[in-house]
Every structure is written in C-alpha cells, then in structure tokens.
Amino acid sequence: MSLSKHEKNFVWSLVAIVCSVQVCLSTALAQPAKQGAKPVPSTKLERAFALIADGHVLEGRRMLIPFCHRPDTTALMYCYLALSYIDDPEMDSKMNNEIVNDLNMAIKMDPDTGEYYRYMAKYHNIQGQWDEALKYEDKALKAKKPDRAALKERSGTYASLGRYKEALTDLDAYLAKEVSTQNTYFIKATLLQELKRYDEAAKFYRLSIGLRNQDRTIIQLARCLDLAGKYQEAISELNKVIKTTPLDDESLVMRGRLHRKNKNLQLAVNDFSKALEIEPRAKIYTERASLYRQLGQKAAEVKDLAKAKELTSEPF
Description:
Number of strands: 0
CATH architecture of the domain at 19-158: Alpha Horseshoe
Distance between the termini: 28 Å
Radius of gyration: 25 Å
CATH superfamily of the domain at 19-158: Tetratricopeptide repeat domain
Mean pLDDT: 89
Strand content: under 5%
Shape: elongated
Order of helices and strands: HHHHHHHHHHHHHHHHHH
Largest sheet: none
Helix content: over 70%
Low-confidence stretches: 14-40
C-alpha cells in the first residue's frame, strides 16, 4: 500500500517547515545600535523574541513592531518580525511582501549570517517555491557564519522535489552533529521508505515510536511493513492503534486490506463491516462486495454493490 499524493505532500510539507526558531537572543543584544540612537530596552525585546520563539506570534509581534523600521533596528529584529508572520498558523498571503522585505533587510544588514538565508528558504518552502528555497539554503551553508540547520531545511526541499537520495544525504549530514529526536527519526524513516529501503525505514519508525508513541508513526510503520510484504507484522502494529482508537475507520480499512492480502478474507470482511458502521462509503462497500464474491456469498455481494451505487448517486 503506497502513500497517496495527498499523504506525500502532507509528510514533505512537514519536513520542509520542520526547523524551529533557534536564534540566540544574545546575538540581538550584542549588535551595536547606530550612533546617537536611543538604546533598546533589552528585557522587553527579549520577551518579544521569546514569545515568537515559543509560538505566541501575535503577542510577540505586537511587542516587536515598535522596535522595527527605526534607525537602531537590528538584522535579528527584522528576522523575528518575518518569523512572526511565517510561523502564524493563519498566515495571510497579503503579508508575503512584508516577510520578504523584512528578511531582505536582515540579509542586507548582516549578509554573513547564514540563519537569515535559511529563514528565507523556509518561507519559499512554505510557498512551494522549491528552486528559490534551494538557492537560499545553499547561501545559508556557504555564508561566513554558516547555518547547519539549513541542511535539514534543504533535506525537506529535496524531498518535496522527489530527490530522496539527496534529501537523505543532507539529513544524515545534519544528524552527524545533532542529537536525534522523535521527529528526525520519523523523517529519516519516510526518506528510507521512499527509497524502498523498507527494513531500515521500519527500524527508524520504531526508534521514533520509542521516543514518543504516536498513532501516526505506527500507521506509517504499518504502511512500510505492508510495502515490504510483511502483512502480519503490519497487522500487529495496527492492532495497537485500533485498541486505543476503536472508532478509527481508516485504520480498520487498512487492517482489512492487510487481512485480505494475508488470505484471511473473513477477518477482512469483519474490519470493513466495522468501518462501514462508523462511516458508510461507496468504495468500502465495493471492496467488501469483492470479498463476498470470493467467499461465494452472492446475495451479500449484490446487496453491497447496490448500496455502493446508491451512495455514489447521492448528491453531496
């Protein structure tokens, strides 16, 4: 069972924007203000930076804006202002020009710091502008003060382009000097899965689960085991998800399909039946009808096909 286009886009969108804010606040305070400029009250500025870094972007932005676009504004202030828009879950496309202008100002004021190029790359990744993202990731890595986190960002860009081998190379280079996390294990597993290195992928999914047990990771592990032809192992993993979330119809359907591949047709029927009780869908009725045909249950097959036709013809 391969990932759908929607699922792949979701996974690699996560990969592309996964870098968190890691700017050192002391950098901002160390930058000299222009001669004659009024000193910036550091505690309030630190608070604004900390709020944005912690995801409280609206409050942080409100505190930061009065410090920006002044003679004593620093590159880091412009960077954080841009980040307050980039990291806003309700980011307004009307603010795109503001983001680009603020990051360009940061780069103009401090062209030697690779971090600012990386955030520009992050913005382009969110916009799906992969070529522009690669350009800025390369600049981040070649700057006088290179930003290693750009390797992780570029890994996501390569993955979005389907260049999984390059994505894995960059991720491994990044992880060579970093502590692996639940998320980086998950990302590495998905890259290995795309490269059809299923046994290695399963290993890293399990490492991710060991650090944080998440249903989404177990489901991905089950998909990987399915692709490797290890149907019973995949079923065993899905059993864990269904035990904790018995009304997860997608997991029931997935397990049903695995039972079918594993030649356990009645178990497949049972899972499809439970899924249909939760959410009736034409496709699942059609799949169950096919199972009934294999089991020689003609009447049940006809009934399911009729129900599938009825649901298909219903208006939305």
